[in-house]
Amino acid sequence: MTNSFSAAIGAWAAESKDRIQAVHRRSVELLAEEMVDTKPNGGRLPFLTGNLARSLLASTEGMPKASETPTAGSNVGAITATLELNQSVWLGYQAIYARRRNYGFVGADVLGRVFNEPGDYFVEGAIANWQQIVARAAAEIQASVESR
Question: Are the C-beta atoms of 37 and 44 separated by less than 8 Å?
Fold first, then answer.
């Protein structure tokens, strides 16, 4: 009886860890989706060419660096697919102008152009929804488990 009890507890614990890890991964994916939800679709991210949305990258090494070249697309799915429960993950935009679009900018740039642009606060908006994002991820994973 001890062996079957130990095996049952061991299997339950392994399933629990797998489910928590799945919620962690899905939560990061949903956060990234929120961060690239454009204004025309009801989100906060400004949309002109799509470069800003495409420039969102994930990393387990540190914050992704900004770049002046257009980006091919996000790698969030590839990073979250192998994300371990105890691993930190960073989400950041490569578009060099992401900071100005998020926080706004008042003043002259290096070329002497004067701007008075309010911020869109798309990063803070997504972060403010973290609890709902995790709850949604947990509900999705629970529904997936129950449908088996």
Answer: yes
Task: Give how far Cα 138 sits from Cα of 104, 129, 133, 144, Å.
Answer: 34, 14, 9, 10
CA–CA separation, 64 and 129 (whole Å): 22
Tens digits of per-residue pLDDT, 52-70? 999 999 999 999 988 887 7
CA pair distance 45, 123, nearest whole angstrom: 9
CA pair distance 20, 59, nearest whole angstrom = 20
Digit-coded pLDDT (tens) for 35-54: 999 999 999 999 999 999 99
Buried b / exposed e along 45-78 (16+ C-beta atoms within 10 A):
bbeeeebbbbbbbbbeeeebeeeeeebeebebee
In the block, residue with structure tokens 């998020």: 102
79-134: pLDDT as tens digits: 999 999 999 999 999 999 999 999 999 999 899 999 999 999 999 999 999 999 99
**Rounded mean pLDDT of 12-33?**
91
Residue 2 has pLDDT above 70, yes or no: no
Residue 43 CB neighbours (<10 A):
19
